[in-house]
Amino acid sequence: MATNGKSAQQWLKENQSDISVERVQLIMSSIHKKTDTLQPDHPEYEGLVEALDTMEQYLDARNKPQLTFTEKPKNMLNSGQLIPNIQTQEYLNPTEKARRFSELLKKSDL
């Protein structure tokens, strides 16, 4: 049985190929029972809590689905354009602007 985080990590690494989730949960239950009998200031208490944390992280990582390179995440960021391409208008000098404006006035009969 692991007595601290480092020994739990070592045990998980050495036995990775033949560890079942049930086995890890059984060991965690045993460690948890032992921590219930100890006072928080007991020399072994902190190490046992570390071992529980290490094993819990192992189970979380094992249960988390792994993405492969062929899969796309479900919520992809849309990197498309926010607005369509806009063609800019040519800059008109004040004389040309006044000429075009007067032509528009003549056409509209104002």
Task: Walk me through the structure.
This protein has a domain at 5-63. Helix content is 55%, strand content 0%. The chain has helices at residues 5-14, 21-37, 45-63, 94-108. Helix 1 (5-14) packs across helix 3 and helix 2 (21-37) runs antiparallel to helix 3. The longest helix is centred in the middle third of the chain and has 19 residues, at 45-63.
According to DSSP, the number of beta strands is 0
Written as H for each helix and E for each strand, in order along the chain, the element string is HHHH
**Proportion of residues in β-strands:** under 5%
The description of the largest β-sheet is: none
Distance between the termini: 96 Å
Number of helices: 4
Helix content: 55-70%
Average pLDDT metric: 84
Give me the Rg, rounded. 35 Å
By helix and strand content, what is the structural category?
A: mainly alpha
> Which word captures the global form?
rod-shaped
Unreliable spans are none
What brief labels describe this structure?
110 residues; mainly alpha
Topology:
Layout (H helix, E strand, L loop, with lengths): L4 H10 L6 H17 L7 H19 L30 H15 L2
Helix pairs in contact: 1-3, 2-3
